[in-house]
Amino acid sequence: MVEESAGSKKGMSAGAQAVAAVVVVGGLVGVLWSLQNAAGNTADANKPALCSPSRSAAPAAPQVSGAQMCTALNRPDLAVLLGTPGEQPVTAWGNDGVIDRPDGTKKVSPSADVQLKTHHVKLSSSGDRMQVAQLADLLGGGVQKQTVLGHAALFSSDRTLSLTFNAGGGKSSAAPGVMARTLLVAKDGKDSGGSFELVVWRQDGQLPDDPMLLRLAEQLLPTVPGWSAA
């Protein structure tokens, strides 16, 4: 798979033009990562990867930055929570992405990615006024309602799409990727708008189990700026 080969290329030169990405198709949010984003934050030898500086073109500072989310996600016990003790992050980075809306305004969508040998984990924040309950109604039977620390939440699954781009040759290719499991959680107990989204996929293609995602969310989300206890 593209995501596996990209994560293993620790020795790739700075001049390499190939970029690999994984995108969740048809999900609540896109899961996208590239070798360019990972530059400078790859693990050296037996040392875990550290979070790289957040890259941002945001029109205004968000409630939480990509760098803050990366620091929260890249926790020392991440591998233990994922059920793979002894592993360590291979790459880790934050991003303060900006999305152009149809009305000309911009939406800041901070996120963080941490990749281990067996798992890839993405955490993103949405400042929209959309409630998790409203999303559940819109998506219907495609989701499973859940509660995380008293906050409304939704489980969903999506297949990733593996993409490769070659800036030098101008060629690109796409292929079906592995399945990812998503847990969307309201930022506050009243579900007044805004959410955090935790997405995990396994490099071996197996679907991550829900108890693991719940365990990770319960330990992780209270440490992220913008989370309000129920």
Write a structural description.
This protein has helices at 2-8, 35-38, 66-73, 78-82, 132-139, 210-220; strands at 18-24, 52-56, 91-100, 106-115, 119-126, 144-148, 151-166, 171-186, 195-202. With 230 residues, it is of the alpha+beta class. The chain has one domain. Strands 1, 2, 3, 4, 5, 6, 7, 8 and 9 form a nine-stranded mixed sheet that branches. It starts with a helix and ends in a 10-residue tail after the last helix. The model is unreliable at 1-21, 25-40 and 57-61 (pLDDT under 50).
List the helices and strands and how they pair.
Elements (H helix, E strand, L loop, with lengths): L1 H7 L9 E7 L10 H4 L13 E5 L9 H8 L4 H5 L8 E10 L5 E10 L3 E8 L5 H8 L4 E5 L2 E16 L4 E16 L8 E8 L7 H11 L10
Parallel strand pairs: 2-3
Antiparallel strand pairs: 1-7, 3-4, 4-5, 5-9, 6-7, 7-8, 8-9
Helical residues, percent: 10-25%
Question: What is the count of β-strands?
Answer: 9
Shape verdict: globular
Chain-averaged pLDDT: 78
Order of helices and strands: HEHEHHEEEHEEEEH
Q: Whole-Å distance between the termini?
A: 40 Å
What percent of residues are in strands? 35-45%
Would you identify the regions where 5 or more consecutive residues have pLDDT less than 50? 1-21, 25-40, 57-61
Task: Please work out how many helical segments DSSP would assign.
Answer: 6
Largest sheet: 9 strands, mixed
By secondary-structure content and strand pairing, the structural class works out as alpha+beta
Q: What number of domains?
A: 1
Radius of gyration: 17 Å
